[in-house]
Amino acid sequence: MEKKPHSAKRESPPREASAALLVLLVLLLNALLYLYLSELRGSSGRAEAEPSLCPFGYFRLGSVKNCSPWLSCEAINREVRKLKCVGEGAVKKVFLSEWKENKVVLSQLTNIELKEDFLHGLKMLKALQSRHVVRLLGYCEKQFTILTEYHPLGSLRGLNETLHIPKYKGMNTWHRRLMLAIDYVSIIRYLHSSPLGTLVMCDSNDLDKVLSQYLLTSDFHVLVNDLDALPLVNKSSGRLVKCGHRELQGEFVAPEQRWPYGEDVPFDDDLMPPYDEKTDIWKIPDVSNFFLGHVEGSDIVRLHLFDIHAACKRKDPAKRPSAQEILDTYRKVLTLLIREVAMPGTREML
Questions:
Q1: Residue 42: its pLDDT value, please?
Q2: Are the CB atoms for 197 and 233 separated by under 8 Å?
Q3: Whole-number CA gyration radius for the chain
Q4: Is 318 strand, coil or helix?
Q5: According to the model, what pLDDT value does residue 188 have?
Q6: Domains defined for the chain, CATH in brackets
Q7: N or C of the chain: less Cβ packing under 10 Å?
Q8: Among 297, 338, 305, which Cα is nearest to 31's?
Q9: What are phi and psi of 291, to 5 degrees?
Q10: Cα dihedral angle (9, 10, 13, 18), rounded to 10 degrees?
Q11: Which positions of the chain have pLDDT values less than 70?
C-alpha cells in the first residue's frame, strides 16, 4: 500500500512578530508622510501663510466648507455668546464662548494701560495667520476684543497630564513627542523668517511662561497662541530688541538677556544692551527636553540631539545655529530613528 507523502507545513512567522512588524511599518510611513508634508508646507514663509486655503481676512471653522469673513464688532456682539471665563493674564481675560454652535475663544482687554500690547498682539495675529498660528475668527478694536478658534486640550502646560488620559496614552511615545518638538521649532523658524521680518518671542522668561503661549490641537500639533510680545529685529539697520524693562535672571534666559555688569552695579534699563532672535535659540533645548519627557526611547533621542543642543547653548549668540538648522537636524534625527526602529536588531535600542 503506497504511503501518501506528508504535506510539508509552511512555517509562518509568529503572530506577535508580524503584528510588531506591521506597527513599525505604519510608524515609518507616518513619519515619512509627516516630514513630506512639513517640507511641502514649510518651504517658504508665504507658502505657510494660507490657513485652510481661505484668503486673507477669511476663515473656515469645523466641517463648514465655505470661508467666512472675520467677524466684525456687530457680528461678535450679536452672534457670540460667552459661556465661562477660562483664564486671565496681565493683559486680557479669556472666555470660552459659542458661535453658531461652535465653541470659540473670546479674549478681552482687562488693563487699559496695556492696550498697546493687546493691539500689537492683534496686529501680529492678523499678519501671521498660518498653520503655525491659532486661527483668527474676528476682532473688534474699539472694544478690545479678539475671537479665535477653540482647542479643548488647552496650552502645552497640560501636555503631560493629557498624555496620561487613557484616550491619549497611545500618543505618549518618543516619536510623537519628537514630532511636537519639531512643531515648536517650526514655529520659531517661522517667526524668525516671517512675512513681517525677524520676530523674537519675548514672552519666554521661564519654561512655564513659554508653554502657556502655545496650544495643543486635538490632532496633536502645536500652535502659537499669544503674540502680544513679539518685537522686530532688523540687523541690517541695527535694530535690536529688549524683552521688557526689568532685570531678567535665571539660567533659562539667554546670557545676553542678563545684566552684564555684576551685582555691584544696580540694574538700569538704559544701560542694558539689546539683543537679537538668538535668545529664542538658547531656550530650544530646554523646551524640547520638556517635550521629550521620560518615555521609553526619549534618552536615545536626546543623545542624537546632543550636538545641536550644545550649539544652541553657546555663549556667543552669533555662534548659535539658526532655527532652520535646528529644524533640519530634528527632522533628520526623526527619520534616522524611525529607520532604525523598523530594522531588525535595532528595536531593543529604542
A1: 47
A2: yes
A3: 24
A4: helix
A5: 98
A6: 67-149 (3.30.200.20), 154-342 (1.10.510.10)
A7: N
A8: 338
A9: -60, -45
A10: -110
A11: 1-52, 343-350
